[in-house]
Amino acid sequence: MIDSIEFPASLDQQKVEGLLKQRFPDKRVRIYKIIPMALDNSSSILVTLTAASGEDRIGHFRYIIGYELEGEFLSADLVIKVKPHGAAIAAMLEGLAAANGPELGNAYKTASAYTGFSYSHEKELFIDECQKANDIFPEIWGISRDEDAGLFYIMMEYLGEADLINSVMIPEKWTDGPVRQALKSAASWHARSMDLLKQDNFPHWKDERYYGSREELIPLYRALWQNAESKLTDLLDPEEYQLILKELEKAGTLKDIYSGYPKAIIHNDMNPRNCCFPQRENRKDFVLYDWELFNIHMPAYDAVEFLAFVLDEDRYAQREHYLNYYLDCLQDETGVHVLLEDRKDLFRALHLDFCYLRIGMYLMAHCLSPYPFLPRVVRSAMDGIRCFS
Prior knowledge:
The protein contains 13 helices and eleven strands. By secondary structure, the chain is an alpha+beta fold. A five-stranded antiparallel β-sheet has the order 1-2-3-5-4, sandwiched between helices. A two-stranded antiparallel ribbon has the order 6-11.
């Protein structure tokens, strides 16, 4: 038995060993050493919000694990992510909305089932299980769920030494090379995911939004942005708030712009809080992690969000170039061609789409506990709307 160490309430040696054995299903393996290591959890918004509610079982926990494999003594630097089921996340966000006031609280509660969080645990477990060997995913060692406790577990490689990890506050580090590699890698994944969607056994969830925005969500979009307009008066000019509030009333028409284009599995949270470049043998791959919000949508949505995070004011002029580069990469992979004359309408629609819900929900949390990176991202997204108008 290993010397006693202090685990969080949700973990013990048996759970850790069970996750590790998934890595070596047909071999004799035992753990002989577990050393807890420091880990910064601040990059995970959901973990931060959940911890603020007093939940001490949730979090990311790093360990150096020594194990014996068929008589050979080895060690690995691993992270075990302990996450709540989607229902708990949805309830927490309903409480966050209510803390902003009854108007937003009521609107959010009505639309909660369609915001993408209710089945987040099922989505992440599915995608991690079926894509363990894909370059764009982190190296997953084991996954499990505890239905009684309402938790799920992911054992994965430690990424803390990877290039551009947790780089949301230093967009200038995202120079041309990393930006292009990220966009090309995303396009490659989106192309492969189109084949995955064609499989008969691909699961579907009740909260899917195939066309990105639904008319039923307009009352929530309106409440999110009216809340921000009333509380974050220094964030945007009144004219910019009014632009979003006017456009969101037509959100149901976005499907007309998206129609005719194939959809893909998008990460739906592709930004420097969830990506990095770990060393893999003689190369550095672009890796996206935390896939619990993945969705079926226009693939270029991920590129729009990513560029809103990494392009600061001095590089706004490069936005269209990079989005065209992404679409060219996608065309090389799939043969899907977006006519040049249609691209501006598509890019504008996707920036509005990104603002309505994702930015709106960021602002909901920002009103209570500010995110230092968010004003820059909002301004960048608004520039995207202006750029393609």
